[in-house]
Amino acid sequence: MKPATDMELITRLYDAALGRVDWQDVADLITQSFDSVTLTLAIYRPTSSVPDFVASRGFTPAQRRAYQEHFFAQDPVAAEAMRRQIFNRAVLGSDLVDDDTLRRSAIYSEFLRPDLKAFHLLGGELPLPHGELVVFGTHRPEEARPFVHADVRRLDRLLPHLRRALEMRQTLHLAEAHARPLQGTLDLLPCGAVMVAADGLITHANAVAERLIAHGDGLGQRDQRLHAARADQHSQLRRAIEHAGRTTCLRAGGEVAGHLRIDRSSGQRPYQVMVCPLGGDRKALRAGHAVAVVFINDPDGVPGPEAGLVQALLDLTPAEARVVAMLASGVPLPQIGAATGTSYNTVRTLLARAMTKTQTTSQVDLVRLTLAVSAVAMPARSQGPGTRPEPRPSS
């Protein structure tokens, strides 16, 4: 099989970072391209003694454990690389430790030769944010042709892309880890909540939202995307979601991408809709990744958390608790002001105070906290979560 070109390898790295291919496929392609027999790609974290093995080839899980627990401390090549602090560039094992020294080492006689048939090394170490360190190495057996400096130059061209791909992988894992508890919290909401991608693709909907969307009364889905029946309101919804998709994690705290009303063909009161950005690294988000939560409040639906309960649980003032309770019920800020007889700026001030007291940094986090503590304290409603009253007949 013809070895992969540099561009094919780089493309495959980013495909793996975005979850389009498995990292193990990348490992296989690299070993084939460098005519090597083993490969290890691992991330070492200062907070853990166990490395994150992203991919490997030619190592069994037991051999990886043996190296980590016993032979790593005896590895003269790794020790010399750390001593010299050689980062962000490719290096030959023979440039760190001469062949005779390696042959006399315990790791070679007890591990590399009998278990892995590995001798010649080509590798590199790449620092990542937060003190993490990527260790990459690929080997050929002793009887094979040694790696040469042409191989070093080729790996040097790949290492910057490998580092960026792994940074993307880390960012996405973090975003997904944050999304999982958020989905669980959204399922507690008495209002509809839909997580959407920048193009409106629905990635998660809570029980109330599923009912609203299935009912199709002014709001539904088309091609698995959130869709408003009226063209002008659908355009407003799309613009709000697109704005959320341009909001990075550094700007997302407290920001709302849009408030709007969605009219209903039944003649019932319009849905109150609020779009809140989730934030995140726009450069690293894969296609279909959630960028916003769309809160949908049905004025005729079940009530949300009671203000008195919110006040007691979160140690807020009565005014702050009213705002937070209404926000957790999916009521947009302008409607909160109208309902409470206060200005929009006053509502925002009360909300900011509540966020300070609860040590939350965004409206999504404040709603998440409010619903979580309310769910524990409130007795279960007889109708169950996500239940809505039967629609009133249209007049």
Explain the overall architecture.
- With 395 residues, the protein is an alpha+beta fold.
- The protein has two domains: 6-172, Transcription factor LuxR-like, autoinducer-binding domain (Beta-Lactamase), CATH 3.30.450; 187-377, Arc Repressor Mutant, subunit A (Orthogonal Bundle), CATH 1.10.10.10.
- It is 46% helix and 17% strand.
- It contains 15 helices and twelve strands.
- It has helices spanning 6-17, 23-33, 61-71, 76-84, 93-96, 99-103, 106-116, 149-186, 207-215, 231-245, 307-314, 318-328, 333-340, 344-358, 363-377, and strands at residues 38-44, 52-57, 91-92, 120-127, 133-140, 192-196, 202-205, 219-222, 225-228, 258-262, 271-277, 292-297.
- A hairpin with a 2-residue loop joins strand 8 and strand 9 (225-228).
- Helix 1 (6-17) runs parallel beside helix 8 (149-186).
- The chain is elongated, with a radius of gyration of 28 Å.
- The protein starts with 5 loop residues before the first helix and ends in an 18-residue tail after the last helix.
- Mean pLDDT is 82; it is low at 248-255, 280-285 and 378-395.
CATH architecture of the largest domain: Orthogonal Bundle
CATH topology of the largest domain: Arc Repressor Mutant, subunit A
Largest sheet: 5 strands, antiparallel
Return Rg in Å: 28 Å
What share of the residues does DSSP label as strand, in percent?
Answer: 15-25%
CATH class of the largest domain: Mainly Alpha
Q: Quick check: average pLDDT?
A: 82
Number of beta-strand segments: 12
Q: H/E series, N to C?
A: HHEEHHEHHHEEHEEHEEHEEEHHHHH
Name the poorly predicted regions: 248-255, 280-285, 378-395
- Specify the helix fraction band: 40-55%
Query: Can you tell me the overall shape?
Result: elongated
Give the domain tally: 2
Number of helices: 15
**Structural classification:** alpha+beta
Oligomer: single chain
Our measurement of the CA-to-CA distance between the termini, rounded to an integer number of angstroms, reads 72 Å
Protein name: HTH luxR-type domain-containing protein
GO molecular function, one term: DNA binding
Domain HTH luxR-type: 309-374
Pfam family, one: GerE
